[in-house]
Structure formats: structure tokens, C-alpha cells
Amino acid sequence: MHAALVDPAFLRDRLAALGGPGAELVEHRVDDGAVTVRLRHGIPPEEVPAAVRPFLGSGLKLERIETWHGDGPGRYSGTVRLDTSGLPGEIAGATAVQNLPAGGSELSVDGEVKVSIPLVGGKIEDIVAEQVRKLLAREADFALEWIAEHAG
Predict the structure, then answer these.
(1) Looking at the 3D structure of the chain, how many domains does it have?
(2) What is the value of pTM for the model shown?
(3) pLDDT at 14
(4) What is the pLDDT of residue 38?
(5) What separation, in Å, do the N-terminal and C-terminal C-alpha atoms of the chain show?
């Protein structure tokens, strides 16, 4: 699972399928076994929840930076951060993937959304968090299909 999650071909294919307008793999770097990827996502305005649209104008642009490093045999962890253009706040979290003894892998993502807009920030945080959960679910489905297609 980890090998796919940091594979440039996988990342480009995932962005092409799910990344939205202007999506691209901006950076892929390996330093001393740690992998850093920077991805650009675009969400058109019609797909942005109505409560958030007034703050974004022409849609939502996301810069996503993921870092991964080994934590021992079959275990990897890292961080993820999403920077948004036009929306004051941040999305950040921790990631982990590990091989399971019975076969397969387990991927976990734990994150937090913070929006710094008085009075409506909490509501927007809930909306953005739900959209992120949906995206992660679509990305997990895509990963399973991609790995099955590309398995040796």
C-alpha cells in the first residue's frame, strides 16, 4: 500500500481521476528514505458547498503536502497538510499505513480542520471536514482499484 501511495504514476493517475481542474503532481522528492509529495487539487465552484462559496469566488484551490517515512518493517507514518487559497484556515493531520499479519494493509488518517472566520467558522469546518472525508473515501477506493490493476 505504501509503495502505491508514494508512486508518481499512482499519484498522477489519482489526480487525473479525482483531482479536479488544474490538478497536478507538483513535487515528488525522496530524501534519506523519507518521501515528500506536493499535489495541487482544484474544486470547481459548483462542487463547493453553498456556505463556503462566498469566501472562494472561482472555486477552491488546494496545495496538499504529504510526507512519509518508515517506522520499521511494513510500517510507515507521516503528515499531511492542505493549504487553501481564499479560505482562512488549515487542514492538517497524521497518516499511517502498516502491513497486516494476515495479509493486506491498514491505512489511517487523523486530521483536523480549522477555519478562522468569526461566527461561521465552526459551521464551515464541519462542511469542509465532511468534504475531506468523502474525498479520502474516494481516494481509498481508487487506490484499491489501482493496486489491483497494477499488481505484478
Answers:
(1) 1
(2) 0.86
(3) 96
(4) 97
(5) 13
Residue 133 parent element (H or E): helix 121-150
Which residues, given as ranges, of the chain have pLDDT below 70? Answer: 51-52, 55-59, 86, 120, 152
State the residue range of the domain holding 63. 2-150
- What is the spatial distance between Cα 16 and Cα 26, in angstroms, rounded to a whole number? 13
Rounded CA-CA distance 41/11 in Å is 12
Residue 84 confidence (pLDDT): 77
The rounded distance, in Å, linking the Cα atoms of 99 and 145 is 18
Residue with cell 510507515: 76
> Strands, DSSP E only, in the chain?
24-31, 34-43, 60-72, 75-85, 89-99, 105-115
Contact 90, 18 (CB under 8 A): no
Cell of 103: 495479509
CATH number at residue 139: 3.30.530.20
Cell triple for 116 = 478562522
Query: What count of residues does the chain have?
Result: 152
